[in-house]
Every structure is written in structure tokens, then in C-alpha cells.
């Protein structure tokens, strides 16, 4: 294959990776914003339903609403983790293409952004924020559900609710932390068996 054809192919691949990376970044931020909107709506709904009569009815509504929001939060967390891995892979591939052109003509390096070594550094801001929010939903939701039956303002019930809330918070956060670490290890080890952390371009290449 002629060098010009190779260069054209590499440039087209670079442009494709830039588009994929930008789309995935937007998708990640959109998922987080969508989740925060759902939380705001749930809080408004809970405040409006607070004056309903019937402890059992209120407990059931709270349980269903909190459960749905918590489930959406967990799904959002897993999708954001997957998006993070995809973004890093796209960026790594772009760096490899930059290196190809720099090795072919070292003079162009001064016109490019600094070439970084391929690494596995991931943007943890969004997963950490999502994990914290999910943990707070679990903790605050448990307090709300337990105190629904505390009509006598018993200090014991409040103490139990607070203790259960703390346990739920750290348990949920811990499980999400474990999931992120295990998923990252699979990526670093090149296992590639978990569809949650596979880049979409892999599937696209198989269809070609």
C-alpha cells in the first residue's frame, strides 16, 4: 500500500475516533444530567405525597419511587463506567496515530499537543459523583422508609434509621467501588469478556 494511501487511512481513522470520543463524552454527561433531573422530580413527588393519609400507602409509594430512582442510578453508574473506558480507548488510539506521524516526520511534533504515553488513567469524576449520589439515595431512602412508622417520634427508631442509613451508604458505595476496580482490571488485563466495558467500535469492525 502506498504511503499516501496509508496516511489518508490514518487521518480518516483519527477523524472517526475524534467523533466517537466527542459523542461518548456528550453521552456520558447527558446520562448524568438525565439522572439528576429524575432525582429532582422524585424529590418533588415525595414532598407532594407527604400529606397523604395512610402509613402503609405512603410506605409503598416511597418504596417504589426510591427503588426506581436507585435502580436508574445503578444503571447510570454502569453506563458511565463503560463510557469512561470507551473514551480512554479512543484517546489512546488517537495518540498512537499521532505517534505514527511524528515517527514519520519528527518536525511536526512541535505543532501537535504533547504526545502522552498510552496509559490507563480514567476520569473518575463522573463515576465517583454517581456512586456518591446512589449511596446517598440508599441511605436517605432507608431513613425515610423506617421513620414512616415512627409516629411517636421515638429516639430509638431514629437511632436505628440513622445506623441503617450509614451502613447502606458505605455498602452501596463499596460495591460500586469494587465494580469499577474489577472492570478496570479486566480492561487492563485485556480480558474483554464483559460487554459492559467493550468499545462500540469493536462491534462495528466485526460487521465490516
Model description:
The protein has 208 residues and is an all-alpha fold. The protein has one domain (3-207). It contains 5 helices and no strands. The protein has helices at residues 3-48, 55-104, 125-147, 155-189, 200-207. Helix 1 runs antiparallel to helix 2, helix 2 runs antiparallel to helix 3 and helix 3 runs antiparallel to helix 4. The model is unreliable at 191-208 (pLDDT under 50).
**Largest sheet: number of strands, sense, barrel closure:** none
Order of helices and strands: HHHHH
Number of domains: 1
Low-confidence blocks of residues: 191-208
Strand content: under 5%
Question: What order do the helices and strands come in, and which of them pair?
Answer:
Elements: H1 3-48, H2 55-104, H3 125-147, H4 155-189, H5 200-207
Helix pairs in contact: 1-2, 2-3, 2-4, 3-4
Keywords:
208 residues, mainly alpha, 5 helices, disordered C terminus
Concise summary:
By secondary structure, the chain is mainly alpha-helical. It contains five helices and no strands. Helix content is 78%, strand content 0%.
